[in-house]
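Researcher: Please translate sequence to structure tokens.
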Amino acid sequence: MRFLAAAVLSSLLVVACKTGERPEATSKSSAPVASAPAVPEAPKEPPTPSEPATFEAADKVPLSGTVYVARDPGAPVLVLVHRFRGDRQEWAPFAERMAKAEHRYTIVSFDLRGHGESRSSSGKKKIDWADMKDKDMPALVEDVHAALDYGFQRAGKASRAVIVGSSLGAALAARAASQDARVVALGLVSPGAAIQGYDVYHPFADVRMLPSFLAGAKEDNVCKEPLDALSRMGKEHATLKSYDGKGHGVFGMAQEGDALFKDLEEWLMGVFASEPVAREVVPREGEKKKEHKG
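Model: Translation complete:
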């Protein structure tokens, strides 16, 4: 009997121990851990809207384009210059991309005289690229100046600009940049040594101290040597990009992927806050040479 009582007592102690195993600890370990409330993402700024643009060059030739006016009136101006025999539509996908970029420029993409919607009349003579000669190419630089002035006018308080040109537009961009101290950087896509007889080396030499984006396709023989020479002229100020394929100009290269647009956007974000630098400003027709101290 004494043995039986001891066995019963031992069994009761075991049951008591099992039923009393820290229920609070078991409950805590199995309870779900409360997560921190999700922080809502800040709403993204909607794309900068586009609108038609019309303005005149210094010689009263009417020009047509598209403008994206940045919300910040002090944001820099970006002018996009197309190739010879092209029009502003080749820049349209990139302009739309930049309208959604982290930093917003006031963008002017336009048709040079004799191209696209700028095939207009000046007096009694109609202007068309098919009738243009090499001697007419410098007049296209005035169209770039008109686009710059229009961009500054629409922006309101902008004091800086970047010009990006394709093919012949690259040479025009370089010359216009050399003649306007407000231009703080420039991009040259598929520049040729002398497309339509218009030299790119001398204009670029005048702005080689500015940040520059130089790009071309590896199999494009038109821009291979110029890119090498221009990158050496620009030295540490130049960003050189080379892409697979043989497309020429932004229109031809864009058909082979958007790597160019991605790199160009990244470069434009990097020069968004660039300030003017000390340089000699090349005179426009009828102007005297002057120096800009930055």
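Researcher: Any highlights?
Model: Residues 81 and 165 are 4 Å apart (CA to CA).
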